[in-house]
Design brief:
The protein has three helices and 17 strands. The protein is of the alpha+beta class.
Length: 231
């Protein structure tokens, strides 16, 4: 019965993370350049069953979240007519210098202009500086602004870590950023690759699994209560 508590409890934790992931995908269905998250599960360690004649008789101890993967499939573009909007129609990411002084990467090409004493610079909607292929700030006064914007890719883009706010950061798994000749389309923005109908269907399945694990916890509690009250 104790094992039943642990197995069902681990299932509840795993399904709660799945619910949070699906809910986050749905919340970003209209976010420019957003890439959906996919969650994977794996079994916890198996234990031998004591007191049985069967060889290699084992019982599971529940499940856990093994990894969360960013699905980097490209989606369509939406025409905005704004000359400061750019959609990536190829692999790669925009490099940005964030407020904390770190270089991060995004597919969101909704840019604007920051007017400063030292000049006017191209920035993201969050105020982060958009970088050139050489890692420098970009003057918004440039006549050929489109060709000034740097596009970067990685040996393993799936190894990037999601830092929130539609930003990614390099890891040892992703490898270093490499400047590439990416394809940009001005006056457009890349759409999110989240399919709302699919996410709704996934959420229903996850909620059913969550309810099943909750029922297992309740059943294990009732059995423990019966056992403790035996005379």
């Amino acid at each position: 019965m104790i094992r039943g508590f642990y197995a069902a409890g681990s299932g509840l934790n795993a399904q709660q993370m799945a619910i949070d992931t699906a809910a986050n995908n749905m919340a970003n269905v209209s976010t420019n350049g957003y890439k959906k998250q996919d969650i994977s599960f794996s079994d916890l360690l198996y234990s031998n069953i004591d007191g049985t004649a069967a060889q290699n008789a084992m019982v599971g101890n529940g499940a856990k979240v093994s990894r969360t993967t960013t699905i980097q499939t490209q989606c369509g573009t939406e025409f905005t007519g704004n000359p400061l909007d750019f959609a990536l129609t190829s692999d790669g990411f925009f490099g940005v210098l964030t407020q904390d002084g770190k270089v991060k990467y995004t597919r969101d090409g909704s840019f604007g202009v920051s007017c400063e004493d030292t000049g006017n610079y191209l920035v993201t909607s969050s105020g982060d500086y958009v970088l050139s292929s050489g890692g420098n700030k970009i003057s918004s006064d440039s006549e050929d602004l489109k060709n000034q914007i740097g596009v970067f890719n990685f040996a393993n883009p799936y190894g990037l870590t999601n830092k929130g706010d539609n930003l990614y950061e390099i890891t040892a798994t992703s490898g270093d950023a490499i400047a590439i000749n990416g394809q940009l389309q001005s006056g457009c923005l890349e759409s999110s690759n989240v399919d709302l109908a699919t996410e709704m269907s996934n959420l229903i399945e996850i909620q059913r699994a969550y309810q099943f694990n909750a029922k297992l916890v309740q059943t294990a509690d009732e059995l423990a209560n019966i056992t403790n009250n035996l005379r």
